[in-house]
């Protein structure tokens, strides 16, 4: 006699109405702009843009992953993981590496390098700084959440 158990995933509709949720969606949208603007060029000829591309795609994929975890409330099913610490480390590392990538991106954009791709690279630099500020905001909220958990 086999019994089938069904478990349904919860869905947190309110997460997207919070500031961290809105920042996460903004990070996904702006991060997508960063890497698509660079991917549409001959970035592979210039190592600096390869680094920006790596950071942008890496953190875009991880941010989508974390959005799914938060939206489906999967973190409640895995209580062994210190989610506040994971969120703080993720957002902190994203902020630092995106800041470095944005600076590298901005300092590498010149008309002398390749005037054909100048506008795309300049736009990607702008959006990289915007994503950096979103990750800075989420790092702040993660720090507040982590501190409130450690004080209990």
Commentary on this structure:
This is CKLF8 protein. It comes from Tyrannus savana (Fork-tailed flycatcher). Residues 15-147 form the MARVEL domain. The chain crosses the membrane at residues 21-38, 44-69, 81-101, 121-143. The chain is 69% helix and 0% strand. The chain is an all-alpha fold and 152 residues long. It folds into two domains: 1-81; 82-151. α1 (19-39) runs antiparallel to α2 (47-71), α1 (19-39) packs antiparallel against α4 (118-150) and α2 (47-71) packs antiparallel against α3. It is elongated, with a radius of gyration of 18 Å. Mean pLDDT is 89; it is low at 1-6.
Global shape: elongated
Instruction: Sketch the topology as an H/E string, one letter per element.
Output: HHHH
Beta-strand share of residues: under 5%
Kindly state the number of beta strands: 0
User: In angstroms, what separates the terminal alpha carbons?
Assistant: 46 Å
DSSP helix fraction: 55-70%
- Average of pLDDT: 89
Query: What's the Cα radius of gyration?
Result: 18 Å
Tally of helical runs: 4
Number of domains as seen in the coordinates: 2
Major β-sheet annotation: none
Structural class: mainly alpha
- Uncertain parts: 1-6
Subcellular location: Membrane
Transmembrane segments: 21-38, 44-69, 81-101, 121-143
Domain MARVEL: 15-147
Pfam family, one: MARVEL
């Amino acid at each position: 006699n086999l019994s089938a158990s069904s478990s349904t995933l919860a869905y947190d509709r309110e997460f997207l109405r919070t500031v961290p949720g809105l920042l996460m969606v903004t990070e996904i949208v702006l991060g997508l702009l960063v890497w698509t603007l660079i991917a549409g060029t001959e970035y592979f000829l210039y190592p600096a843009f390869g680094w920006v591309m790596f950071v942008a795609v890496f953190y875009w994929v991880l941010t989508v992953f974390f959005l799914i975890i938060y939206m489906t409330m999967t973190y409640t099913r895995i209580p062994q993981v210190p989610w506040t610490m994971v969120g703080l480390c993720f957002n902190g590392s994203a902020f630092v590496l995106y800041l470095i990538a944005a600076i590298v991106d901005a300092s590498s954009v010149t008309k002398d390098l390749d005037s054909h791709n100048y506008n795309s690279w300049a736009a990607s630099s702008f959006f990289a700084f915007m994503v950096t500020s979103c990750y800075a905001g989420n790092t702040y909220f993660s720090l507040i959440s982590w501190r409130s958990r450690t004080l209990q």
